Amino acid sequence: MEGQNISDVIERYLKTILADSEHIEIRRSEIANLFDVVPSQINYVIKTRFTIQNGYLVESKRGGGGYIRIEKVNLLDDIDVLNSLIKVIGTSISERDAVSIIQTLYDENVVSRREADLMVVAIDKSTYSISDRQLEDALRANILISLLNRLRYES
Amino acid sequence: MEGQNISDVIERYLKTILADSEHIEIRRSEIANLFDVVPSQINYVIKTRFTIQNGYLVESKRGGGGYIRIEKVNLLDDIDVLNSLIKVIGTSISERDAVSIIQTLYDENVVSRREADLMVVAIDKSTYSISDRQLEDALRANILISLLNRLRYES
DNA sequence: CATTCTTTGACTAATGTTGACTAATATTAT
DNA sequence: ATAATATTAGTCAACATTAGTCAAAGAATG
């Protein structure tokens, strides 16, 4: 049985609301109060249960009038392709390999020509101006994976 | 709902007016009174929400008959839009300002929604996993400038 | 019993609000 | 003209109000 811990309860609460509305906007402390937990527990729930892999997009703002917004997004069909490419990338990738991955995306009609061009720029060695090759490849992997993750869903 | 703080409310108020007129001329104290805030809050709103990155030009005059004038500039009328944006970016840019620039490009139909989304990902703080703020902002400037330069060429 | 998941709270970071002080410009008095 | 005064806006730092991070402690699981 799921739901024996408070994180599961909070998860269900939020997902119930999201079943009706496209998105939900909460005040962290309010939810924390509602379930009598510390505020950072809300972060834990979001981090473990509202990931992009699950089809949720989260954004937030601090300061007065701050909020956490959770949106249910429409996952696309190319997820398998993206997953396998992300696995290939790992934590480090050369510019050459990165370009060929982007080429694959273009060949598979996942991205347009122009989108592919922009992605190539974003992983280009010369734009980083980093001399350390390992750092460069690690950074490129981070950026490329983030880009691929963005392609999982629309709007 | 987004915009629970008074700064957002004032921002919306001013932008609503700017939707009709090319520019708006306000008396700082009047707006401050209207929303029951201290006058310097108006400066805060302008400084954070009506930057050139957002496509707004602000000028003011002190003394009797003083005013603050906000103008919506059409960056695309200028053939050197990209140049001026690149100049604004310089060697370092915050995530907030970078997002503003990309938003402007989208508003002005320079990039599609999807392209803008990908660009935002490419300048997102969380994709870099760098703890050094200065390095982060410098890297972001490099990447954003490269992306803008790529937009010069059509494909 | 080892491992993973959950809970907690101290500390950090981002954003917004306020007011005292400063600076610029215009108006009035001399 | 010049000086004094009034009338605007600008700056900056303190304080307020949110959310994020991280690691340690506790609980559950297999």
What does this structure look like?
The structure is a homodimer of 155-residue chains. Chain A has helices at residues 6-20, 28-35, 40-49, 79-89, 95-107, 113-122, 125-128, 133-150; strands spanning 23-26, 56-61, 67-72, 74-75, 153-154. Chain A is of the alpha+beta class and 155 residues long. Chain A folds into 2 domains: 6-72, 2-Layer Sandwich (Phenylalanyl-tRNA Synthetase, Chain B, domain 1); 75-154, Orthogonal Bundle (Non-ribosomal Peptide Synthetase Peptidyl Carrier Protein, Chain A). In chain A, strands 1-3-2 form a 3-stranded antiparallel beta sheet. Chain A has a two-stranded antiparallel sheet with strand order 4-5. In chain A, a hairpin with a 5-residue loop joins strand 2 (56-61) and strand 3 (67-72). In chain A, helix 4 (79-89) runs antiparallel to helix 8 (133-150). The first copy, chain A, is elongated, with a radius of gyration of 19 Å. Chain A starts with 5 loop residues before the first helix and ends with a strand. The mean pLDDT of chain A is 92. The first copy, chain A, binds a DNA duplex (30 and 30 nucleotides) through residues 4-7, 27-29, 37-44, 48, 60-68.
Q: Topology, please?
A:
The structure is a homodimer of 155-residue chains.
Chain A lengths: L5 H15 L2 E4 L1 H8 L4 H10 L6 E6 L5 E6 L1 E2 L3 H11 L5 H13 L5 H10 L2 H4 L4 H18 L2 E2 L1
Antiparallel strand pairs in A: 1-3, 2-3, 4-5
Helix pairs in contact in A: 1-3, 4-8, 5-6
The structure holds a DNA duplex (30 and 30 nucleotides).
InterPro entries (chains A, B): CtsR (IPR008463), CtsR_C (IPR041473), CtsR_C_sf (IPR041908), CtsR_N (IPR040465), CtsR_N_sf (IPR041902)
Family (chains A, B): Belongs to the CtsR family.
Protein name (chains A, B): Transcriptional regulator CtsR
